[in-house]
Design a protein that fits this description.
16 helices, mainly alpha, disordered C terminus, MetI-like fold, two-stranded antiparallel sheet
């Protein structure tokens, strides 16, 4: 009887309704809906006729006719005019996307590899200067740097970095940021036994880094790269200042949104251009969703 009563109690506990998880589920469901509903509305509005959107006041309803030509209009008028040698050149969307890829990938690589290497040296080699570097990173993150843009522009022109992709890549190769702390914490979690075993087998310090340490930290490395890529892809201010002859898609989106040209002054066309701009980031999120959700604090030892 005692055993049967215990089994019955267990089944009763399993059937007990958990209000805490129900409340969490409702909150997460509402939060997800708040993110998806604006995207769905943007898509439905982008395929509406402007008269239907304004005159008929069909702002929230289903489109009566799917006007896919809005995307063609947005694509045709999505360009950046650049003055060069007294002439005006129109850089269209394919050129803007290509510039965005060069800018985003190059800057993301520089902004990922540099803090990774510096953090590795500070975390794995306990010399006195490593503490100074660590302190410099903390101070640089806590103190706001105001008024440095004019001097940076003058420096980039003096060093011939201005208006070149390789110049902006070098300018982004610094370790002063949060990702230095991320890599520093990651390298601290990797046991020293891996490096010691490799050195016993005759591996040099460089080989230990490239064949032992970095493979263990590849999830962190790739996640930081993706986050940097998304950040630089959405950046239009830095390319507008330092790459005036090489406009990127984010700068084109800025001009597109503020344009007064009749063809793209309508809300559905502007929303169509916004969705065209989100396609690369959407594809990256779908392809590398597991990478972005990876636990970057996992160690190398398995028990």
């Amino acid at each position: 009887m005692n055993a049967n009563s215990q089994i019955a109690k267990r089944h009763t506990k399993k059937r007990t309704f958990d209000w805490f998880f129900f409340v969490i589920f409702v909150i997460l469901f509402l939060y997800t809906a708040s993110l998806l509903i604006p995207v769905i509305w943007t898509f439905l509005t982008s395929v509406k006729d402007n008269d239907e959107y304004t005159i008929l006041d069909n702002i929230l309803g289903w489109p009566s006719s799917w006007r896919w030509s809005n995307y063609a209009t947005a694509y045709t008028n999505f360009y950046v005019p650049i003055q060069r040698n007294g002439q005006t050149y129109h850089y269209t969307m394919p050129y803007l996307f290509w510039n965005s890829i060069l800018y985003s990938v190059g800057c993301a690589v520089a902004a990922t590899i540099t803090p990774c290497l510096v953090a590795y040296l500070c975390a794995r080699y306990p010399f006195r200067f490593s503490k100074v570097v660590y302190a410099i990173v903390l101070v640089a993150m806590s103190l706001p740097i105001v008024g440095s843009l004019p001097s940076e522009i003058q420096m980039s022109k003096t060093l011939h970095f201005f208006d070149t992709f390789w110049g902006i890549w070098l300018m982004k190769a610094n370790f002063l940021g949060i990702y230095f702390l991320v890599f520093y914490a990651r390298f601290k979690t990797i046991p020293a036994a891996y490096s010691e075993a490799a050195k016993i087998d005759g591996a040099s310090n460089t080989r230990v880094l490239w064949q032992v340490i970095l493979p263990l930290a590849k999830d962190t490395l790739f996640t930081v790269f993706l986050l940097n890529f998304v950040t630089f892809w959405n950046d239009y201010q830095i390319p507008m200042v330092y790459l005036p002859s090489h406009p990127v898609a984010a700068y084109g989106m800025f001009l597109f949104q503020n344009s007064t040209v009749t063809e793209i002054s309508y809300t559905p066309v502007k929303l169509a251009g916004i969705l065209l701009m989100t396609l690369p980031i959407l594809l990256i999120s779908l392809i590398f969703s597991r990478r972005l959700m990876t636990n970057i604090n996992v160690g190398g030892i398995k028990e």
